[in-house]
Amino acid sequence: MFQISKKRRINLLENARKDGRRDANVGKKVTAQVFKAKAGMGSNSSNQINAEDKLLGSFSDEDSVINPPYNLEELSKIAEYSTILQQCIDAYKTNIIGFGIEGKSRVDLNGDEITEADKLQSEQEQKCLSNFIKYANMDEGTEAILQHVIEDRERTGNGYIEVLRNGANMPDGFEFAAAQFIRVCKKTNPIDVTYKIIDTEGKETEITRKKRFRRYLQVIDDKKIWFKEYGDPRPMNYETGKYGEAIAPEFLATELLHFKIGSGTYGKPRFIGNIVGLYGARKAEELNLLYFKNGRHVPAAITVSNGELDDESYNNIQEYMNNVSGSENAHQFLLLEVKGDEVENQKGEIETTDVKVEIKSLADMLQKDALFLEYDESHRKKMRSAFRLPPLYTGEADEYNKATAETAKKITEEQVFQPERRAFARTLNAAFLEPLGIHEAKLEIKSPDLTDITSIAPALYPFNSAGAVLPNDIRPLLSKLLGKKVDDVPDELNKPIQLLLAEMQANSQAQSETNPLGNIQKSFEYDEQSLIMKDMRDLLMELRDHGKI
C-alpha cells in the first residue's frame, strides 16, 4: 500500500485505489457463486484526502525551486485521518509556547556588581523586547502565531513566519505562512553581510561575513509570490523573484523565517516512519464502521444436498443480501423453499429425494475485533513514541497516580519540552535581538512550575530548626502555596526564628527588671483581648447556626 516514487513523494492514495481495484477482482475466478450487496450498502473507495500537489514539476530551471521529498499538502491534512496524531501535535504547541513569552534581562538586576547605568539600559531593552513581543501581531498575538508555526512544523516538518519591517528597516511584526504552499529555492551566491556584536571590551562593533541566502516561493491558485530569506539585505521584487536596486517600495518582497525539523532543505515530520501504520489504523476504523453499519450481516455459505433452490428462493436470498444493512432491517427471517431431485427407485417409480439445507457460518475466517484493537493500540504507542510523549499528554491517564504522573511530567519536561523551548527561543533571539539593537535582554519562553510545595516543606524543616532559613527565603514558596502575593518582612525581622525568639525573651526579661508592674499591665491587656476574641467567636457561631453565614 505504501510506495515511494523516485522523488520520494508520498502517493498513498493512488496506491490505495489500486489495492481497492485488486481487492474487487478477488474471488471472480472461484467457481463458487458469491452474493454481493448492492453499491448503496458501502463503498470500497477511500475516504482519505485526494489532493495532488499542484506545485510539483511546475517550475522552470530558472526558478531554482527544490521540490519537497513529501507531499506537503497531504501531510498538512493527515492529522484529520488519525485518532492520535492531533493530540500529540496539540501537546507540543501547548507545552512549548502555551505558557507565555517574555522579555528578560541577561544580568541580575539586583546584583551588587551591576552599575546603575547598566541596570537602566537592561531595563530599557527588556521593555523594548516586551513591547515587540506584545505587538508583533495585532490580530492573534505572538503566542498564537508561534503556536500555528509549531503545529505546521509538526505536521509537515516545516513552519514559517513572514517578518515585516517598519520604515526604519527594523523588524516590526510577523505573520503566519502556511507551509503547504511554500517551496524552497536553491541557495544564491555568497554575499557580504554585516553583523553588530559586543567585543571583549564590552563595546559594539561591526563584523562582515559571507553568507548564502535562499528564496522562497508561495503558490496559491496559480498565483506566485516570492519571498527572501530573513536577514537577506538585498532588495527583491515579490512578483518576479529578481534582486535589484531600483524596485518600487510597493513591490519589495518580505522575508520568511524557516523553522524545520532536521538539517535538510525541507524538514521531515517526526511521524514519517509511522505513516503506514497511520493509514492502516484508518482502514481498520473504516472496516469496523462498515461492520456496525451492516449490522446483522454474517458471512455464511448455504449448501443444498439432494436438491436445488427454486427461482423464488434464489431471489429471496438476493433481496435479503441487498437489504441486510441498517437497523430498520434487523430481526428479519429468511424463508428458503427447496425442491428435491426426482429419481427413479428400484420399483421404477419416480420419487423426490430428501433435501438437506445447511447454513455454515464463515465468521471464523474473518479478523476478530480484538486484533483491530491491538493493532490500534500498538499504532498509538508507536505514534506517541515518535513524539516521545507519555499517554498522560494525550488524554490517556487511566494508569497514572499522583506519583507516576509527576514523574512522567518531570521527565517529559526535561527531555522533550525544555530542549524545544530553548531551541525555539535561541532561533528567535538570533533573528531579532541584533536588528532591534538589544544586547542586555533576551526573549524567554516560559515553562510550567512543577514545584511541589508540600514535598518541599518537610525538607526545609531541619534547616529551619537549625536556624539556617530566613523568613524572606520561604516567602515565595508561601505565595505559591496560598495563591496570592505575600510581602517580605522588614529587614529588622528577617532573622532566623530562634534568634528572634531569643531577642524577644531577652527584651522581655530586661523590661521586667526595669518595670515590675509591666507584666501585670500586659496580662490585663491580653485578658481584655481574649474576651473580645471570644465574643467574636460566639457571634460567628450564632450566625452560622441560624444559616446567615
Automatic annotation (TrEMBL):
Pfam families with a match to the protein in the record: Phage_portal (PF04860)
Stretches assigned to coiled coil: none
Residue ranges of the TM segments: none
InterPro entries, A to Z: PBSX_Firmicutes, Phage/GTA_portal, Phage_portal_PBSX
Family to which the UniProt record says this protein belongs: Belongs to the phage portal family. PBSX subfamily.
Record-given protein name: Phage portal protein
